[in-house]
UniProtKB/TrEMBL annotation, chain A:
Its main location: membrane. SUPFAM superfamilies: Ctag/Cox11 (SSF110111). Belongs to the COX11/CtaG family. It is a single-pass type II membrane protein. It comes from Vogesella alkaliphila. This is Cytochrome c oxidase assembly protein CtaG. It is found in: Cell inner membrane. The keyword RNA-binding does not apply. Exerts its effect at some terminal stage of cytochrome c oxidase synthesis, probably by being involved in the insertion of the copper B into subunit I.
UniProtKB/TrEMBL annotation, chain B:
It is an enzyme of class 7 (translocase). The keyword DNA repair does not apply. It comes from the Bacteria. It is found in: Cell membrane; Membrane. Pathway: Energy metabolism; oxidative phosphorylation. The chain crosses the membrane at residues 40-62, 82-102, 123-146, 166-190, 202-229, 249-273, 285-307, 319-336, 357-381, 393-415, 427-448, 468-488. Its main location: membrane. It is a multi-pass membrane protein. This is Cytochrome c oxidase subunit 1. It catalyses: 4 Fe(II)-[cytochrome c] + O2 + 8 H(+)(in) = 4 Fe(III)-[cytochrome c] + 2 H2O + 4 H(+)(out).
Length: 180, 547
């Protein structure tokens, strides 16, 4: 009335299938990386390090109240950088193109590759600062002791909420180990 | 290949010739008997439960009053982290695997687990893993302190204690995957004639589905902690924003493991309760088929809700809504189960022995935990309650009053079959009422603390939270003390308990109660012919040999 009892061979076959499933799931975990990467690109999430597009609707037709912009930079202890903004503060009208320069020095005696990560205060200001060009879009290689200047070009969106009258743009520079 | 071949051989020597039990230390070191390995698992789980419990008491001692009393914050964080890891991977999961080892072959009429030597291996991997976690307290920088979730970038920055933790997770993962393969092959291939899938006891169904969940998600956990390891030591940037990685990616991969893990710790509990409630209600389980389907749908849904742990990471509103509704959907099959248990008790001829008390306690308190879970599933509320004590209250209601209470119920229920002796009923009942009282004193106030905004994983807190924290600490110490009653009861009854009948519970009708008590060392060496009803009810048994 029942199917014949399972043999050792049946058991081993099932064991192999289940082992295969475990291996597939291990690979799946790593496969999630490109999947999420593609998802973020498609949906535009995580776009702080990519150039923005500024349509005319984001540029002000009539002058709005200026926003106080503060520029800052930090380096985590132990990393070989000196970073300073050449402009500390300025006032800009939303919709106006702004360019500021940063000076980055590799203070070590070896070649290093750096990556800058932008940060906004308040964090909610991030979506209203549209960066057209930024040294944070790419990794930068530095010779020992080299100093270079980099521009940041951006527009403060004219849709910026009225209460948001002061924005700080801060960069942290990391070195990218394993690349030179 | 010969090593692997011999690891896959069923232990034939048990069937031919060597009928005497092996004795001494080798009986345990080289154990291939499912009952011995089951006992090893259960003892290991209990010792880890005590270890994790002591860590919990260290946490509660510090939180008795505001300000720093006993530990520095770094050490406190190590306690919370290791408490979580040890209770999840060291106590609850091995305890369920141990019960499955002990009971599955008896329930389905199999001679042993399918791969007896692999079974030995999967147990003996656990003590070294536990040892790694234990010695990580003594290395420079101390044990892992990133919380049991080991979120990046905390976990990519810590000292070597994190490396030990990662290796421990790898080892425990391998162990649980091997254990799960054994469970699946045993259930699918070794059932006695007549024991069909849709007649199988609920504990077998729950173990089967749990085993599939483990095989599907433990490799994902192994993958993500490997990424942390390569980020730490081999210059990769999976979770390092500077190198183009993303710390939030860690959370996505971790919770793809983490949410099914929640059900890995809950489904076997559902299975156990589905035995005990019918037994002590003296009625068949209400809605057996719907129980099977509810268990399967919980397992499938558990793969689609991981991001409800991440509502505050800044995901789009559409995604929040999807995960919110999917999470709420899980309440439906879970509600079916609770309804079925109540339906089983309805108009039953109930009696309230210790296993039944723990099972009913499970239903009541697990439902409370389920309701706070539904509350947390609402994204707008979760954003308020994320990382507060409300979450701590929620998951302790489902893990302590859920998983742990079901384990106590199971140990009391099957103790006569395992040992041949009865435990002390009065001490068992005292253990239940004591645990029930102090569990609620410990964890119910945490709901209020969370709603008032107290964050989790901190050693110090604002004065306004003092009263409830003091209450919770008193409750925790009393709850912990009560577990010694359980330990003493078990130890004493093992030697001096009254001899148990073959079927000590008159309502018990599954296969393990059809054989002698204590269960013969080699049971069902020849498969019996069975006539089986739903939920493994044995209507008739022919043949079947034991040694």
């Amino acid at each position: 009335m029942d199917k014949p009892p399972a043999t050792l061979h049946d058991n081993r076959l099932l064991l192999l299938k289940l082992l295969l499933l475990a291996c597939v799931m291990f690979v799946f975990a790593w496969g999630l990386i490109p999947v999420y990467d593609a998802l973020c690109r498609l949906t535009g999430l995580g776009s702080l390090q990519r150039p923005d597009e500024v349509g005319s609707q984001r540029l002000a037709a009539t002058p709005l109240a200026p926003v106080l912009l503060t520029f800052d930079a930090t380096v985590q202890p132990g990393l070989p950088w000196q970073v300073r903004p050449l402009t500390r503060t300025l006032r800009a009208v939303p919709g106006e193109f702004v360019r500021v320069d940063y000076e980055i020095t590799n203070a070590s005696n070896r070649q290093v590759v750096g990556q800058a990560i932008p940060r906004y205060l308040p964090a909610a200001a991030a979506e209203y600062v549209k960066k057209l060009d930024c040294f944070c879009f790419a990794q930068q290689a530095f010779a020992p002791g080299e100093t270079r200047r980099f521009p940041v070009v951006f527009v403060v969106d004219k849709n910026v909420p009225a209460g948001l009258d002061s924005i700080t743009l801060a960069y942290t520079v990391f070195d990218v180990p394993g690349r030179s | 290949m010969t090593a692997i071949d011999s690891a896959l051989q069923p232990a034939h020597d048990t069937a031919h010739g060597h009928h005497a039990k092996p004795s001494g230390i080798t009986r345990w070191l080289f154990a291939t008997n499912h009952k011995d390995i089951g006992s090893l698992y259960l003892w290991f789980a209990f010792s880890m439960f005590i270890f994790g419990g002591v860590l919990a008491l260290c946490i509660r001692a510090e939180l008795f009053r505001p300000g720093l009393q006993f530990w520095q914050p770094e050490l406190f964080n190590q306690f919370t982290t290791l408490h979580g890891l040890i209770m999840v991977f060291g106590a609850i999961m091995p305890a369920f695997t141990g019960l499955a080892n002990w009971m599955l072959p008896l329930m389905i009429g199999a001679p042993d687990m399918a791969f007896a030597r692999m079974n030995n291996w999967s147990f003996w991997l656990l003590p070294p893993a536990a040892l790694l976690l234990l010695i990580s307290f003594a290395v420079p920088g101390g044990a892992a302190a990133a919380g049991w979730t080991l979120y990046a970038p905390l976990s990519t920055q810590m000292g070597m204690g994190m490396d030990l933790t990662i290796f421990a997770i790898h080892i425990m993962g391998v162990s649980s995957i091997m254990g799960s393969i054994n469970i699946i092959v045993t259930i699918l291939n070794l059932r006695a004639p007549g024991m069909t899938m849709m007649k199988m006891p609920m504990f077998a169904w729950a173990s089967l589905i749990t085993a599939y969940l483990i095989i599907a998600v433990m490799p994902v956990l192994a993958g993500v902690v490997t990424m942390v390891l390569t980020d730490r030591h081999f210059g990769t940037h999976f979770f390092n924003a500077a190198g183009g990685g993303d710390p939030v990616l860690y959370q996505h991969i971790f919770w793809f493991f983490g949410h099914p893990e929640v059900y890995i710790m809950a489904l076997p509990a559902f299975g156990i309760v589905s035995h005990i409630i019918p037994t002590f209600s003296r009625k068949p389980l209400f809605g057996y088929t719907s129980m099977v389907y509810a268990t399967s749908s919980i397992a499938i849904l558990s793969f689609m809700v991981w991001a409800h742990h991440m509502f505050t990471t800044g995901m789009p509103a559409t995604a929040q809504l999807f995960f919110m509704y999917a999470t709420m959907l899980i309440a439906v099959p879970t509600g079916v189960k609770v309804f079925n248990w109540i339906g089983t008790m309805w108009q039953g001829s109930m009696s309230f022995e210790t296993p039944m008390l723990f099972a009913i306690g499970f239903i009541c308190l697990f439902t409370v935990g389920g309701l706070s879970g539904v509350t947390l599933s609402i994204a707008a509320i979760d954003i308020q309650l994320q990382d507060t004590y409300y979450v701590v209250a929620h998951f302790h209601y489902v893990l302590v009053a859920g998983a742990l209470f079901s384990l106590f119920a199971a140990v009391y229920y099957w103790f006569p079959k395992m040992t041949g002796r009865m435990y002390s009923e009065s001490w068992g009942k005292f253990h239940f009422w004591w645990s029930l009282l102090w569990f609620n004193v410990t964890f119910f106030p945490m709901h209020f603390l969370g709603l008032a905004g107290m964050p989790r994983r901190i050693p110090d807190y604002n004065m306004q939270f003092t009263d409830f924290n003091t209450l919770a600490s008193v409750g925790a110490f009393c709850f912990g003390l009560g577990q010694l009653i359980f330990f003493a009861n078990m130890l004493h009854s093992l030697r001096h308990g009254k001899p148990a009948a073959a079927r000590p519970w008159e309502g018990a009708d599954t296969l393990e109660w059809q054989i002698a008590t204590p269960a013969p060392y080699h049971s069902f060496v020849e498969a019996p012919d069975l006539e089986v009803g739903e939920n493994g009810r044995i209507d008739a048994m022919h043949g079947g040999k034991h040694h």
